[in-house]
Amino acid sequence: MDKMIYSILSIKKNPGKLNDLLLGIKGISGGNLYLVSADDITALVSNIKGKDLIANRSNAIEYAGVIETLAQQFTLLPVRFGSVMESNDAIKKMLERNYNEIQHNLMYIENKVEFGLKVFCDSEKIKAELKAKKEYGPIIEVTLGNGNSIYRDYLNKKIEEHRVEELLLSHIDKIIKGIIANLVQLNPIHKFKKMTTTTNIIDAVFLLEKDKKDNLVNAIKGFQNQYTDLHFVLTGPWPPYSFVDITLK
Amino acid sequence: MQDNVIDRSKDITILELLDRVLNKGVILTGDIVISVADIDLVYLGVKLMLSSVETMEQLRSGQSKAE
Hints:
The structure holds 2 protein chains of 2 kinds. Chain A is an alpha+beta fold. Helix content of chain A is 41%, strand content 25%. Chain B is 64% helix and 3% strand. The longest helix of chain B is centred in the C-terminal third of the chain and has 29 residues, at 38-66. Strand 10 of chain A pairs parallel with strand 1 (27-28) of chain B, so a sheet runs across the interface.
């Protein structure tokens, strides 16, 4: 029987509560959840048969549900779906080998939650507006040879597109700076990605203390009122998936 | 608009959840982990990513039209 690992957590605080909680939750395919420990850290595990190892949507949601339930009560490191080891002994040895890194990461996310923020807009519309304003200044036109090259218009058009693209990125940077400046009191750890698609101009994740989540929600409402041409989508609170990008050996 | 600031709609939440559970979190290296249908995971990941982008863009588009 293989062992599916859901998360890694500390059992220093309230181990009794953890055991009680596990009695009311089932793992994938209804498997009982149990703990494999090394000193004061423990892995949440359930037995799983080969035929149940299917990476489909319902199993992934079930898996996330287990992590979510525990994360409401405990600080934990969520483990990526599909992490299966052959025995409890192998899991215990893995915990022992990575003890320091696990402890370090648990301290890093202690009592914190993650939020996701996606900002959408019609970037083509914004580009058109930027282009109309000519904020990129005069374009030094390319002349080739005697200036009558058939490529000249094409090259000048490309240069203009590039300038507008730069202006758009600079516009997004200003929005990101505005968001960061307004959240400074909440002191979240943040990661930002720009232009993941033509409409998703900002894809951000925040890690902040649990008791500050209402402040974040209110701050995002404020941004929405400030930037009426953008659409803000906030999701969370999540277990800190995006802030435990560690690899255990 | 303000009511939509905190968008907990089922579709977005599930897509965000699947993105996290499949693509983020602690990784156990391949040599200690029993493979779980790697190809399926990759396939599912790609499919979800495409689905996620499309759904969000549709939702956004719907939002704009509603406004």
